[in-house]
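Bumping with the actual sequence this time:
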Amino acid sequence: MQSAESNYQGVWGNRIGFGQRPALLVIDFLKGYTTEGAPLYAPGVVEAVAQTPALIRAAREAGIPVIHTRILYLAENCADGGMWVKKSPVMKGMVEGNVLAEFCDGVEPANGELVIVKQYASAFFGTSLASHLHAQGIDTVIMAGCSTSGCIRATAVDAVQHGFRGIVVRDCVGDRHPDPHNANLFDIDSKYGDVVSREEAIAEVAKVKSDFPTLSKTP
C-alpha cells in the first residue's frame, strides 16, 4: 500500500510560513495532564511542558504577546461544558479549587499576560480570542500545549478558519499516546497549518522587530 506521505505529496502539505506579527498561544498546560495517576495524565504532555519554557522565554524577549488558555467549568455539574462533558466526562475535573485544573509549573502566565478561559476544545470557540488577535493585528498563531489530538487540533483548524497562519511547535505539544499525537501532527501539517520544530519557532520569533512590547501589555 502507498504510504500516507506519498499519497499526500503534491496534493496536501503546502507551506504557509510565519507572517509579520505572531502571538504565542499556550494551550491548556494544566496539572491534570502531568500528574501521574490523574485520569488525564499524558506522558507526552510532560515532555512537551519540559520543552516549552525556552519558547515562552523567546517570545517574551521578542516582546510578542503570550496568551494562555485553560479549561474551567463554572456552572453546577459542569453544565457549561454542554455535550462535550457528556461525551468526555473526564473533563469535569476542570473546576475551580481542583489542583489538577491549575497551570503547570514553569509555563504559567506571567503578570499581564492574557488568560483565555474556555469550556470546549478550540481556544477560539465561545471566546474572545479571534477578536483580540485581530485587534492586535496578529497574523500568525504559534501553538504549544495539549492535547495534540484534542485542543491543539481544534484550535489549529479554527485558526485557519479565522484567517490566521497556524504554526504548531512539534516539540511543545503532547498527547497521552504517540499514535494520535503523530497522526494529528501529520494532518495539521497537511491541511491546516505548519508543524515546525522548537528550534525553528524560536529562530523565527527572534527575528520579530516590532512595537509588540506596548501591544502585549494590558491597558
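The C-alpha cells above came from a reply further down the thread. The first strand starts at residue 22 and ends at 27.
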